[in-house]
Amino acid sequence: MVDTPVWSLALRRTMANLSTGQIFQRRQLERLIEEGSVEIIGPIRQELLSGFRQQAQFERLREYLRRFEDARLVPEDYEEAAHIHNQCRAAGVSGSAVDFLICAVALRRDWQIFTLDGDFRRFARKVAIALYGV
Fold this sequence. Notes:
Helix content is 59%, strand content 3%.
């Protein structure tokens, strides 16, 4: 599953403004898209589409993202997200509700999480999530 920061890097920034490492990450995403190995959930789609001042930019990104079907979330995903939140909180690790939902969905489906968000490394020390490229 591809997390918001990876999508943002690839879709909202030009190649000229990327570091060598960021170019590599963007190319990794492009390869995963070509392979049909990309998963997305509604909350990530919402994060990506939020914050546009110009309607045309919003519509362009919305149309692009429609190529990717949202994974269907079920009550067990939310229950597992709450469980992960509780485990992490008990260990002194905090995070957002969306981040814990991403962890739960990936864990329950045996997916890797492709992210640039360092919080997921902290979560992975407490919960058996798999991070892409790590």
